[in-house]
Amino acid sequence: MAANTTSPKLIVDQTSSLADERIHICAQCLQPFQCYTLLLSIIDEKSTLFKSLAFYLADADGKIDLARDAAIESPSGSYRGVFSEGLFSTLKPLIPYERLVRRDVTHPLRFVLSLWNGSTASTISDQYLRQFTSVVTSQHLIDTSLDFVTSLNVGLSESLNVGLSESLKPLAVQSIDRHFMKDGVRRVVVKEGKLRGTVFIPAGNGPFPGVLDISGAAGGLVEYRSALLASRGILAMSLAYIRYDDLPKSMKHLEIEYLEEAAEWLFQHPKVNPVSGGVGLIGSSKGGEFGIAAACYSRRITALCTVNGNIMSIGSRTTRQLSDVKYRTEYGMVTPSGVQYPPAPLDVGKAVLYDDDAINVRDSVAFPVVPELRNMYSKFRKPFIREGRQIVSGDKDDFGTATQEEETNSGGFFKFGETDFETIKQSMYPIEQVHADWCLFIAGESDQNWHSPVYALEAVRRLEAVGKKHVRALIYPKTGHYIDPPCAPFEEASFHPLAQSVVVWGGESFSHQAAQEDAWMQTQLFFKKALTSPPDPLSSKL
Q: How far apart are the first and last CA of the chain?
């Protein structure tokens, strides 16, 4: 095969797309059977540089296709094998444990994709890569011709006051914009009564399914999921509940009435479809736990989806890192008709501290050891094949090894330290009271934050026992805690502002990305079905 004489090119099928869409990346006009590096970089809103890179061999025609070709295994590569979304999924920050989270969803994330000779890209300095990424990102129109790349390298050499060898210059460059709001989606700030958040309204006349979106314990206003839901035809409200505007700075007390008020407000929105008699709620981690609590009391929540949520109030009475959850309070006090769920204490002695000071708290939280759950596990575990690779369970049985005596003495929960079941029972939400006809519990089998699959199955078991029909769990193998829309990079660990430490989340990049893609599709289908269906008369009577 003759050598290519034309300049190398990067071919991206969508240089501007929604953040949850797959992107097809190819390189062509390369030297056959030669090694090349593909490098992806981005500078986020906090000026943190993220990068990923992979090494590929060009085929006999001088082409590389990320959906077809396997990345070469290398200590400096971010991944190996066929992984079409690998560059996006394996992005890592230069400042360890930072998360790539888009705060301003009205603007896209702009990534810089570059092609390099051999494996030399792995040796370029962080200073050069930052400047390179900054220059390309600032361009309004990226000209990926050889002339542009040449002028770019000249400018970088001058700004860095260094001479760049030919081997340390990119062969081709392409910017990629990933949007969170489709054309026509409107963002409206909500500041009514106690409510603080934003509503994302899809393009068109509606009516649309309405969904409350609750984030985790880090708090603040997290909008990217709501913006993408609206881009897919669901009217979504990002609801902050701590650490935002004039809301409480801590989670010492969470009041269910706040979510109840939000559900009622959203249901009254003129563009929300009223046919189900209510709205949906999606919550992740602590947001999922808070959402379960609200669904036990609010009849306006007719479809509930939790992502690695819990079935009881979680926290530590000693450190007060997390909160109690209350319903029907006056001046912060529970009324005679109200109820309070104190935080189940954590057994910090079971936390694992790693050499890099990251902490794994999974076994610090009590979880059910109900025998029936083991039989349910295979029904809801979701192994599947992606890009020719089978994704199956990578973890040990998640149900512990409690003896019959221990199960009896613990009331169905592990007993640890000085904590008995009666203490834990005070923190458990009355799941049987959930008013929603439709419930979906999503869990990562390798979640290291807590035993999410077990909580999901226990919720299903208890809801099915009271006659709920539209209840299911989705348990994804080798998947960690942060199951976000598929635009989010995989994070095995990150700094948690509430815990003030690095927390291990678990999972593996390839499987986690596959889970995010599937869970995102399942979530949209779930809400569109549940919120366009009339209430189940039998369920209403129950």
A: 73
Q: Which residues contact 236 (CB under 8 A, 6 or more apart)?
A: 199, 200, 210, 211, 212, 213, 225, 226, 227, 229, 230
Residue type, 373: L
Model pLDDT for residues 205-258, shown as the tens digit of each residue: 999 999 999 999 889 999 999 999 999 999 999 999 999 999 998 887 899 999
536: buried, middle or exposed (CB in 10 Å: 19+, 13-18, 0-12)?
middle
Is 186-541 the same fold as 9-179? no
More confident residue, 183 or 411: 183
- Per-residue pLDDT tens digits for 428-474: 999 999 999 999 999 999 999 999 999 999 999 999 999 999 999 99
| Amino acid in position 260 | E
pLDDT at 81 over 50: yes
Amino acid letter at 496?
H
Judge whether residue 321 has pLDDT over 90: no
Residue extents of the structural domains in the chain: 9-179, 186-541
What is the DSSP annotation of 52-96?
Answer: EEEEEE--TTS-EETTTSPBBP-TTSS--BS-TTHHHHT-EESST
Please tell me the distance from the alpha carbon of residue 102 to that of residue 93, in angstroms, as a whole number: 14
Rounded to an integer, the average pLDDT of 98-117 is 94
Over the chain, what is the mean pLDDT? 86
**Structure-token pair, residue 327:** 């319903």
Q: Which two tokens stand for residue 235?
A: 């009217």
Domain 186-541 has CATH 3.40.50.1820: yes
Rounded Cα–Cα distance for residues 379 and 357 (Å): 37
Are 446 and 478 contacting, i.e. CB atoms less than 8 angstroms apart? yes
**Residue 25 backbone phi and psi in degrees, to 5:** -115, 130
Asked if the model's pLDDT at residue 415 lies above 60, the reply is: no
Six token digits for residue 234: 């669901």
Name the helix (H) or strand (E) containing 219: none
Ramachandran assignment for 520, one of left (phi > 0), alpha (psi -120 to 50 degrees), beta (any other) = alpha
Under CATH, which number does the domain 9-179 receive?
A: 2.60.40.2240
Decide if 395 contacts 475 (C-beta within 8 A).
no
Summarised one tens digit per residue, pLDDT across range 475-499 is 999 999 999 999 889 999 998 876 6
Going from the C-alpha of 523 to that of each of 8, 283, 326, 440, the distances in angstroms are 40, 12, 28, 8
Q: Measured between alpha carbons, how far is 321 from 250 in angstroms, rounded to an integer?
A: 8
